[in-house]
Amino acid sequence: MTQPLRLGIAGLGTVGVGVVRIVQNHADMLEKRSGRRIEIVAVSARSKTKNRDVDLSPYDWEDDPVDLAKRDDIDVFVELMGGDEGPAKAATEAAIAAGKDVVSANKALLAMHGQALAEAAEIAGRSIKYEAAVAGGIPVIKALNEGLAANDITRVMGVMNGSCNYILTRMEDAGLSYEAVFDEANQLGYLEADPELDVGGIDAGHKLALLASIAFGTQVDFGAVTLEGIGSVTIEDIRQAADMGYKIKLLGVAQMTGRGLEQRMSPCLVPDTSPLGQLQGGTNMIVLEGDSVGQIVLRGAGAGEGPTASAVMGDVMDIARGFRMPVFGQPAKDLRKARAAHSAVPAPYYLRLQLQDKPGALAKIARALGESGISIDRMRQYEHQDAAAPVLIVTHKTTKTALDEALDEIANTGVATGSPVAIRIENL
Amino acid sequence: MTQPLRLGIAGLGTVGVGVVRIVQNHADMLEKRSGRRIEIVAVSARSKTKNRDVDLSPYDWEDDPVDLAKRDDIDVFVELMGGDEGPAKAATEAAIAAGKDVVSANKALLAMHGQALAEAAEIAGRSIKYEAAVAGGIPVIKALNEGLAANDITRVMGVMNGSCNYILTRMEDAGLSYEAVFDEANQLGYLEADPELDVGGIDAGHKLALLASIAFGTQVDFGAVTLEGIGSVTIEDIRQAADMGYKIKLLGVAQMTGRGLEQRMSPCLVPDTSPLGQLQGGTNMIVLEGDSVGQIVLRGAGAGEGPTASAVMGDVMDIARGFRMPVFGQPAKDLRKARAAHSAVPAPYYLRLQLQDKPGALAKIARALGESGISIDRMRQYEHQDAAAPVLIVTHKTTKTALDEALDEIANTGVATGSPVAIRIENL
Q1: CA of A100 to nearest chain B CA: how many angstroms apart?
Q2: Rounded to whole angstroms, how far apart are CA atoms A403 and A419?
């Protein structure tokens, strides 16, 4: 008779309650599929009295998650509190020190301290699993670490923050400004308590850093992610990009290049007919490219009670089955520090500028681009509005350095009003 | 020092050669990620002398795959021969009897004999893994068995035969008849030696039966799959479905209903804006729906050397890591025989008929539908051509029984020329 697998759950927000529900409602199914009974022994959260619409009376209560993590009667510490410091970090470290396996949904903690935690876990012979930390219910970490393990991964890419994708698609659908949709999303509770985690690309950047580490066998390095949020995306950009056949997405891209590891999280244009271009609302999508498998696209809910709890329980069941692997897919001590690429690989860019109504103005723009070695793929000038004419340009592939040079040169011509908008185009 | 994992590979067609290439080119990476060296010890194929553009000289040769399967110096028998009887079956059985783990790309063998093989493997304490048998490089079996294991799966659906999807999208793009594109695909080598395996939906039906078994915890039962191939799909159907906002796909659907397990592989209409509707060419897509996770969509190459070899090696690496699970996700002895649903759940249907140029003709059609309890969602009549007018009808949800009744009634009216076409619409 196999012993049950005993869980201690720290954090009883949306995800924690979802995990409790799955364990309560699907006990027999979980046992059939994982070969072991899965039981919750004890829980911990900030408030003991909050009504959570789930029966917690069968479980012991711990006020301090560190005490929960160290309990003799749990096998797995399930960390669903969040935050890259404080109780989440202390309790995770305590769990590993006490010989527990850890299942975590905490992208910030792993992106900031993943290497140290992985080394500690591997010395202790324990697992840290965190499928729920990236793209909610989509089993992308399992796909990278296991399903596609025989591939040299060439690129990982995707829309990893549902709130940002909601804001961008809602702006387009309703014709609203960024500010208006931001306020709406905030009131609906779609954004983190600190909204900059979402709209600044930080949350998505944490996820990208984790995927990059697994994909390329490097130490997780969130500090090397080039971050740019969606705060500067305007409804005009969205509309005029649509005119040219593109959608704007907060896109994460990680790839290993001859100049080092490139990790960027920034607004990009993608073809509106591509899988990424067609992604609406809060859905996430991850694109994995490998030398043998080609391109694999995974799509699903990136957040929410059910999807995130599904990912947490997938990890718990792997532990119940005895499936153990290194935290980032390879032994932590063997992971090298990646050299960060200082510039992104060349790409086409979309430029939007306001041209003054002067003879020869467009020629000056074209010349400035030409002199920086940038050739124009497509260009459109619209009617003048208030003495300025919107001009959209899609360039051929160019480096960011050449583009910045051209933008300086364009500023010097004196024929463009305000600052030009430049957005990278990522082809799929 | 961990011992290497030793492979014996039977079958050196496209996939077998792909597996040899990965093992030769990525030896160090495979070891880093799986924790063990992976070596090929011996191989077997029909022709020893065929030039395969890969160096087989380091490996022993066996003329008989059964002898290969029983060799003392292999740990894993990799079966890439295909066929549901004959050498593939004999060698797989021999491998299990000899205490080997098996990795297989053979959907026919597993769909026909999976239950018996699973029981034998589990008694022997061995694994049979077959990620490559379903949807090529897409890690869908892993997603179902592991990533989504905490979900009560409600529906599994998808485009699982790239050749059929190629034919249907090529018909539409080039405006060619089924026959013309079939011949073209056959000449390009896109179809199986027996093309009926592809265009008759048999190959895709094998895959659906395997997914259904895992999803619903039932004994694999290919005989219960309702099969309908794409041979009767005309270019007119494709064009006129497009007019109504739909694409025609050879769609597999498995769902557990109150009336039993429904497994169908048949041409269906899907909205042209849905992920399935937008699937072009030889790509595969699987949609998994679970009670917690909601809808997960997986997309990638469903065939070809690299993608299929990637899936084979993913399984091999799981075995190297010691990851063992029951063949169909739950112990084979516990799988129940599913009661087959005798009719599909109600759905909207698309009807195409040729109406004679007679007063009151359309009214008779509408009345026939109404009398069978079928209401019309949308209807279009086109101009008369050769004394007949094409009529397209999209119904509201109805049962197949009511629909067949209405079609009989329509035939009795005498105002429709030829047989009406009726295609199920699957909403996503």
Answers
A1: 20
A2: 14
The predicted-structure confidence for A212-259, as pLDDT tens digits, reads as follows 999 999 999 999 999 999 999 999 999 999 999 999 999 999 999 999
Going A220 to A223 to A228 to A231, the CA torsion angle's sign is positive
Mean pLDDT of A370-386: 90
Any idea which residues of A carry the catalytic annotation? 207
Q: What's the start-to-end Cα distance of chain A, in Å?
A: 51
- A60 interfacial to chain B (CB closer than 8 Å): no
Nearest to A96 by CA among A108, A114, A84: A114
Q: Residue B382: name the closest of B374, B390, B370 by CA.
A: B390
Report chain A residues whose CB lies below 8 A from the CB of B321. 323-325
Query: What phi and psi values does residue A418 have, to the nearest 5 degrees?
Result: 65, -170
Mean pLDDT of the A377-396 span: 89
Is there a contact between A139 and B137 if contact means CB atoms under 8 Å apart? no
- In 10 A of CB B24, how many CB atoms? 12
Which value does ipTM take for this structure? Answer: 0.95
**B402, two tokens:** 């009511």
**Given B131, B290, B317, which is nearest A310 (Cβ)?**
B290
Phi–psi pair at B187, nearest 5 degrees: -65, -35
Share of chain B residues as helix, strand and coil, in percent rounded to the nearest 5: 40, 25, 35
Contact A148 B314 (CB under 8 A): yes
Amino acid identity for residue A228 in this structure:
E
Catalytic residue among B207, B247, B249, B364: B207
Do residue A146 and residue B150 have CB atoms under 8 angstroms apart? Answer: no
B 264-323 near A (Cβ less than 8 A): 273, 275, 278, 290-301, 304, 306-307, 309-311, 313-314, 316-318, 321-323
**Strand residues in A22-89 grouped as ranges (E):** 38-44, 60-62, 76-79
- Residue in chain B lying closest to A137 (CA): B293
Q: What confidence score (pLDDT) does residue B343 get?
A: 81
Residue with tokens 């927000």: A13
Position A199 pLDDT exceeds 70: yes
pLDDT value, residue A359: 85
Sequence-separated (6 or more) residues with CB below 8 Å from residue B219? B115, B213, B335, B336, B337, B338
Helices (DSSP H) in A322-388: which residue ranges?
A: 361-371
Q: Which residues contact B223 (CB under 8 A, 6 or more apart)?
A: none
The reported pLDDT for the residue numbered B1 is 58
**Chain A residue with minimum CA distance to B36:** A330
The residue ranges of chain B whose pLDDT is under 50 are none
Q: What is the DSSP string of B143-201?
A: IIIIITTTS-EEEEEEE--HHHHHHHHHHHHHT--HHHHHHHHHHTT-S-SSTHHHHTS
- The pLDDT score that the predictor gives to residue A1 is 58
Of A292, A299, A314, the CB nearest to B309: A292
Q: Which residues of B126-161 are buried (b: 16+ CB within 10 A; e: fewer)?
A: bbbbbbbbbbbbbbbbbbbbbbbbbbbbebbbbbbb
The beta-strand segments (E) located in A152-258 are 153-159, 226-227, 246-257
What is the value of pTM for the model shown? 0.95
Beta strands in B14-152, from DSSP E residues, in sequence order: 38-44, 60-62, 76-79, 101-104, 128-129
Note the residue count of chain A. 428
Cβ–Cβ contact B334 with A under 8 A? yes
Cβ distance A307 to B330 less than 8 Å, yes or no, reads: no
CA atoms in the 13 A half-sphere facing the CB of B372: 23
How big is the CA angle at A249 (ends A244 and A255), to the nearest 5 degrees? 110
pLDDT of residue B74: 98
All residues of chain A having their beta carbon less than 8 Å from the beta carbon of residue B273 are 278
